[in-house]
Model the fold of this input.
Amino acid sequence: MAFNFRKNLSLITTIAVIVIAGVGGYYLINLKQGPYPASSFISITYKWGVGDTLANSYNSATSQYQYLDNMDKLIKRSVKLHANNVIFIHSKANELDIWSLPDVIANKNEDLKSKKVLRYEIVFNYEKRTKKIIFMTDYDENIAVADRADQLQKMIKQTIDEVEDRYSK
Done:
């Protein structure tokens, strides 16, 4: 009996590794999908600026993109995200686990309308739920949360800028 066990140990180990890898892979894939599929994604609203009014904004539902240029001149454009851009934003947002981010990412007792601190407001609209995140760039209480929020806003900004560059020429 001990001889058979030793003889089959590599077979048993191989089967165990395959089962563990399969189960682990299944759960990793499902965790990255997030609670809502890309097909239920409706739109994203992205605003940034300082103070009371956020002059810079993008709304994927209306394709309206406006921002202040280097000379504080308001530029208005129509920038339409395509399906691949929407799927990319949705998958990156799920990868960064936006549903576990707090709604307000700011230091305690901070004025959200501060004229000194850059503020981002990001709203993800799905068929059954909306997630709004307010991110103050001077947030320093939880570095991991600040890093995820910063990655999220940079990814959205980069995607919008790439689409604008590609279709404005």
Summary: The chain has two domains: 1-33, 38-168.
